[in-house]
């Protein structure tokens, strides 16, 4: 029997990351698009900082009830 814990991934807290073929994380180069599953908001990103900033902004807007939009 498995003792694995079931994990929930709610859509309102789920994101999809599309990495460009030119991205090279070993050099710190990220070229990507990130999309929020629930709202469809998306942004082009070029760094980890932009990635995390987008996630924080979307989740903050969601808590405050702001509709947001593409960045």
List the helices and strands and how they pair.
Blueprint lengths: L14 E5 L12 E5 L5 E4 L2 H17 L7
Antiparallel strand pairs: 1-2, 2-3
Contiguous low-pLDDT stretches (5 residues minimum) are none
Give the topology string: H per helix, E per strand: EEEH
| Helix run count | 1
What is the helical fraction, as a range of percent? 10-25%
Major sheet summary line = 3 strands, antiparallel
Give the class from helix and strand content and strand pairing: alpha+beta
Q: Report the principal-axis shape.
A: globular
Work out the number of β strands.
Answer: 3
Give the overall pLDDT as a whole number: 85
Within the largest sheet, what's the order of strands?
1-2-3
Terminal CA distance reads 46 Å
Q: Strand portion, in percent?
A: 15-25%
Give the C-alpha Rg. Answer: 15 Å
What would you say this structure looks like, in words?
- This protein is α+β, with helices and mostly antiparallel strands and 71 residues long.
- 24% of the residues lie in helices and 20% in strands.
- The protein contains one helix and three strands, in the order βββα.
- The protein has one helix at 48-64; strands at 15-19, 32-36, 42-45.
- It has a three-stranded antiparallel sheet with strand order 1-2-3, with helices on one face.
């Amino acid at each position: 029997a498995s003792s694995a814990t079931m994990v929930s991934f709610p859509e309102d807290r789920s994101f999809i990351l599309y990495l460009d073929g030119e991205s090279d994380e070993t050099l710190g180069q990220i070229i990507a698009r990130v999309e929020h599953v629930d709202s469809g908001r998306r942004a082009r990103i070029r760094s980890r900082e932009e990635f995390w900033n987008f996630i924080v902004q979307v989740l903050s807007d969601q808590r405050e009830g702001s509709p947001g939009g593409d960045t």
